[in-house]
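#structure-requests
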Amino acid sequence: MKEKNPAPAGVPEGPESPLHPAWRSACFVCGDDNPSGMKLKFRVTAAGESEAEWRPVAAWEGYPGLIHGGLISTVLDEAMSKAVASTQVRTLTAEMRVRYRRMVETGGRFVIRGKVTERGRRMIRAEAWLVSEAGEEHAHAWGSFIPAPEKPG
């Protein structure tokens, strides 16, 4: 279960390598190789949490001036996935629940954080939250992650 995606020779591997190899990523949220993507830069904090800054743009609106809830859910899923990936375990999201607390406005400045809350043999649970510059929580998510199937050789 602790298999890593091998990077090409000479390419360093980091905590995100189990889900998104640093040498190529088309991930919509964090991938540099996705021209339509958000290109968020997650880092792992000293406390073991994943963290990224997010400034949503008009292209992600549902209603004018408000970010689509599906995209809020997407960045929260990514924060949890990055927290799990930092443990060097390859997983997939099995289930996710989101509570929307406040509107997320276009152009606002936010921090997205995720952390692992429980590690079992077959399941890892995590939480993520979206917080404004003022420290107000705008959305919170809970997720369950299962081991990713082995890639055929």
